[in-house]
Amino acid sequence: MTRRLAYLLVPLLLAAAGCTATAEEPAGPAPATRAERPSPFADCAPLTVTPASAAPAPAGAAGAELPDLTLNCFTGGAPVRVRDVKGPAVINVWASWCAPCRKELPAFQRLSERADGRFQVIGVNSRDSRGGAQSIGEDFGVGFPMLVDQGDAFQRSLERNAFPLTVLVDADGRIRHVDATGALDDDRLAKLVRTHLGVTV
User: Fold this and answer.
1) Gap between the Cα atoms of 147 and 165, Å rounded
2) Please, what sign has the CA dihedral across residues 135, 136, 139, 144?
3) Which of 15, 95, 116, 189 would disulfide-bridge 128, Cβ 3.0–4.6 Å?
4) In terms of C-beta density within 10 A (0-12 exposed, 13-18 middle, 19 or more buried), how is residue 73 classed?
5) CA distances (Å), 188 to each of 157, 166, 167, in order?
6) CB-CB neighbours of 52 under 10 Å
7) Weakly modelled stretches of the chain, pLDDT under 70
8) Using one digit for the tens of pLDDT, what is the confidence trace for 87-123?
């Protein structure tokens, strides 16, 4: 009987000792989740400032204005009124779950690096989770400013429902072209920018 009692008590004593030891150990910092990491994307404040060496709007018929809606910036700060975004600009609408979006994002990052103050490259992350966007931004080294559109208001305002979607905006803030042909590569992007914004990259 005594031996049986000992067998029953030993696990309880060990469990109690383990809990006590764990409770007395200093608590270390919790491991950071991807969402707690610094954002890979740039701040959105410069979006409403004309690019330093902005290319003038090409001659031709004026397009429609950008939608009159306000979107949050991925990095926080003041929300951005889309109509206040200063062109020239190339706006890429994407989501982390969209395979063609993931395929073309590196080309948009390279385009932003070649812009050289003549135009802005802007992302609009749509119908996505913050964690998914954060992960793709980190994995692909995407650093241009990112607006967040949880309810796809931007696409609906353009009467488009495609992923990915690319919008080219001239220096007057007018939409010159909307592309929904699928994943764009460096050559196709360069041709679109040259044709619709008058800038060679």
Assistant:
1) 14
2) negative
3) 95
4) buried
5) 25, 12, 14
6) 9
7) 1-36, 60-62
8) 999 999 999 999 999 999 999 999 999 999 999 999 9
